[in-house]
Amino acid sequence: MSKILVGFDFSTGSAYAVDFSIDIANRFQQDLRLVYVKEKDQDEGPIREEIERRNAGVAHLLKGIKMDYVIREGKVSHEICEQAKEDDAFLIVVGTHGMSGFEKNWIGRNTYRTIAGSPYPVLTIREDFDFSKSLDNIVVPLDSSPDTRQKIAAAANFAKAFGSELHILGLYTSENKSIKNIVDGYVNQVDNYLTKSEVKHSTRCVSVPKNLTLTTLEYADSVNADMIVIMTEQESSLTSFLLGTYAQQMLTLSKCPVLSIRPEEVNMLR
Q1: b/e for 118-143, b at 16 or more Cβ within 10 A?
Q2: Which of 39, 106, 115, 119 is the least buried, fewest Cβ under 10 Å from its Cβ?
Q3: pTM for the whole structure
Q4: Do 3-126 and 137-255 have matching folds?
Q5: According to DSSP H, which parts of 133-211 are helical?
Q6: Hey, where are the domains in the chain?
Q7: According to CATH, what is the number of the domain 137-255?
Q8: Percentage, residues of the chain above pLDDT 90
Q9: Cβ within 8 Å of residue 6, ≥6 positions away
Q10: Does domain 3-126 have CATH number 3.40.50.300?
């Protein structure tokens, strides 16, 4: 059995991520593993003691699954990605601070580098998200790029597990007729796939007046979205993988959890 990994650092955001991950793990029947990345020469004793205390406090919520933890040392994003590879992770979950805590912990470089470096889906959850809500509505934006449909199977798996409705949003990034035809074709393909898979869904296509991210978020607000599923749009550079502008803006501005899928590495399709 593969595992759901949760980046944990005792922050409020990471604690919320653990709570949400337990629900996800129960539904998908995947074991949970917390990953704490310590600083060099930091004493592991108090860390282990506190993590074990917290894990014992939520053990009653686990339904047929196990939860453990590992402590690693090094750069946070690198160590989480390495642990994910070792565990053949089903999913990585990281909690972030709200907009007021932009410099802190996960919302900065650690979040972006974890997502960019991970070969597995990464779910980011802001600590100011309303966790009392159920995962009823999931928005899946589609554009004219060839890999845009790769996130559909993962989104459908979440919808089946949570009884959610998928809201497929076709984005016309140009008034060019050929571009619109591509988007329409993708939306129709996805519509047929979800219908055959018996996944509740709706479809809509809109023109993007200015900003792709804002158009997506406005639509997400209109359907009271509880999650948005995106591709990471990775671009190779001389030194690293970088997240595309759309992905970066979505992670920064979205009020609801964002599931980021790496092109051609959609682990949750299996």
Answers
A1: bebbbbbbbbbbeeeeebebbbbbbb
A2: 39
A3: 0.89
A4: yes
A5: 152-162, 177-196
A6: 3-126, 137-255
A7: 3.40.50.620
A8: 63
A9: 14, 17, 18, 21, 32, 33, 34, 35, 92, 93, 94
A10: no
